[in-house]
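S.,

As promised, the FE2/S2 (inorganic) cluster run. Input:
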Amino acid sequence: MEIRVRWRGLDRETLTLPGVKLRYLLTKENIDFPFPCGGEGLCGRCKVKFLENPPLPTRVERRLLSSKELEEGVRLACCAVVEESTEVELLGGGTVVPPDFLLDLADLAVSGPPPREGAFSCALDLGTTTLALSLLEVTRGSRVSVEVMTNPQRIWGEDVVSRMGASLEGKGRDLAGVIWDLLLPRLAGASYLVVAGNAVMETTLAGYPVDSLARYPFQAPFPGGEWREKPFPHYFMPLVGRFLGGDTAALLLVLDLVGAEKPALVLDLGTNAEVLLLTPGGIKAASAPAGPAFEGVGISSGIGLSPGGVTRVEMGGGELIFHTLDGGPPRGFCGSGLLSLVALLLREGVLEPSGRIREKGELAPFWRDKRGEAGLILDAGLILTQEDMRKVQLAKAAVASAWRVLLSLEEVEGELALYVAGAFGSSLTLEDLVVLGMVPSQVRRFVPMGNASLLGAEVVALSHSCMERVEELVRGVEVVDLALWEGYQEVYLECLGFSG
Ligand code: FES
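Predicted complex:
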């Protein structure tokens, strides 16, 4: 029997089954709510008030809340389990952020039976910067919630190269351990987990050293596509290649399930950029290290996907207008906001095609610090430096050089469709991507996909035939290793500018 949860002041209502943690419902409704200790039940600050039918307090709640609070229906969002219909007030405040799914489970034809028995299962998008964990109700084939968390491996560095460095220094066990420490408490109630991550992420989580990924003859020690039972039953999506992981396999599965048109270029813009070319003759795939700029990380005013994160920049009344993830004041850039800004500055002539910031311009004051560093002051607290621009250019060149190589190997006539995975698709326009030189000029149709890595893992968690299909798709991919491709460095250097 379904129960109904109303959210006081948010004009939101959730239908769910009894016995679900309140924190899952918050993420299901895309409500951004602070969990200061990461939901570990330590700080007692994630307070909510059940205005009707408060659940029985847990041991942690009895320890961290006063008896008056407990009597008034105050509970902790990370502990409370909703058993009856109720109305909930978020005492720490909460804002609704737009979902990053442009495609959803309902858009995909998923058929059972599931790969294993169980009423609930989980799917994980194991990203270099963030993890997205989805809880699924297997019998209904539906998603209960998605929780997005910072990848705890970031203490060893922001990108895959630094994680490989940590693994080479003997930290492999720790790299896997911090992920499981984060996941295991969240997997309670689920029967199994499906993991989709890039090659380095999956390889480290599976407990393999990654040195052979980093050294000639560059081989993947772990192919994925297999079940493990410890420390929790989980299936790794198959790796597509040395640097094309299970996240790319998940993306391929989603494209297959939606019947993607061909020819098409497919981009997945992350710390490692994956570029696919789909033609009636087959699938070619390449991967290039783009650095963390696409995640809005490692740049002066970058904050990634956080409240106040700028996702898009526009001109209005001669001024820059910043659109943020949650509609609040701008606090820093997400990757999409950074690219949107750079595209706008290129259109307005504030940036030269070489990427150099012009000293004259009315849009934003130009400055130079004592060391000679140049930059623009964009808004209160937001800046863009020449060094930031260099990082954007390196990331852009990684993508553009990859598709240039793929297109040089395959004769593609006429127009191309463009599929973009990740949060970028919802904020960037095709015009932005063309101005940045990130897509070829023959692209005509732009299809934003949302988090296809998570979506692909979810359908595998729901359907055994999808699991078989993804393994079949991966076997058919021709992987182009850019590091071994003659003339790649020249192509990459040519792609650093913004002239196309
Ligand atoms: S987030 Fe700290 S106790 Fe809930």
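The longest strand covers residues 142-150. The mean pLDDT is 87.

- D.
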